[in-house]
Amino acid sequence: MKNSCQDTEYSGMMQCQFLLLTSDRRLRYSFREFVTVLVRDPRIQKEDSWHSYIDYEIFIHTNSICFTRKTSCVRRRYREFLWLRQRLQSNAVLIQLPELPSRTPFFNMNNPNHVDHRRQGLQEFLEKVLQDALLLSDSRLHLFLQTQLSPEDMEACVSGQTKYSVADAIHSFASLNRRFPIEDEERKKEKNDADSDSESSSSGLGPSDDSISCGCKASPASEES
């Protein structure tokens, strides 16, 4: 009788462990990080009466903890991609970065095939960059993808020469460019829940993040293609 009870108990423990392992596997497979990047909507922008350039919209959608915002859209031009690749390479010398579409004097912004070929090349470049964990740790990449700061302002922000941090810059741009209200509402709800929990446990708290001005403004695009 005793052996029978022991066998039943052992069988129950094994079944429980199996269920826990199965549940853990399901949890791991149900949450997989992803980063979707699209380079799209090329537009001709007038620089002055004599010069024009093309910029492209960069759309990001992700659940990765590496990103401050889970959804964003910015516009960048080819020259800014050149700057980004140079800066990423200088900070990750052991990594062979993917190539950008070549710069050619025969590029015609009024030729749809030329424009789309470059757009595809820019998207492939970003897709490969975003697969590398080391490159993802570079703050310049996040400022490039989720703010409209110029290269000069991005460098200043990363080097600590601005009143705002990288996260401040990203949130500030998002507040000026409210194209994704669902994420804004989710963040607002999370903040309100956190504030409610804090108020119930303590009093005399300092000012909230909303009262701190980061002084970050979206910068216009650079002057070369």
Keywords:
alpha+beta; 3-stranded antiparallel beta sheet; 8 helices; 225 residues; single chain; 3 strands
How does this structure look, described?
The chain has 225 residues and is an alpha+beta fold. Helices cover 50% and strands 13% of the residues. The protein has eight helices and three strands; from the N terminus they run αβββααααααα. The chain has helices at 2-30, 78-91, 112-129, 133-136, 139-146, 151-158, 166-176, 181-201; strands spanning 35-46, 52-62, 71-77. A three-stranded antiparallel beta sheet has the order 1-2-3. A hairpin with an 8-residue loop joins strand 2 (52-62) and strand 3 (71-77). Helix 5 packs across helix 6. It starts with a helix and ends in a 24-residue tail after the last helix. Residues 198-224 have low confidence and may be disordered. This is Sorting nexin 10.
In short:
By secondary structure, the protein is of the alpha+beta class. Helix content is 50%, strand content 13%. The model is unreliable at 198-224 (pLDDT under 50).
The run of helices and strands is HEEEHHHHHHH
- Helix share, percent: 40-55%
**Proportion in β-strands:** 5-15%
Give the number of helices.
8
Radius of gyration: 24 Å
Shape: globular
Break the fold down into its secondary structure elements and pairings:
Blueprint: H1 2-30, E1 35-46, E2 52-62, E3 71-77, H2 78-91, H3 112-129, H4 133-136, H5 139-146, H6 151-158, H7 166-176, H8 181-201
Antiparallel strand pairs: 1-2, 2-3
Helix pairs in contact: 5-6, 5-7
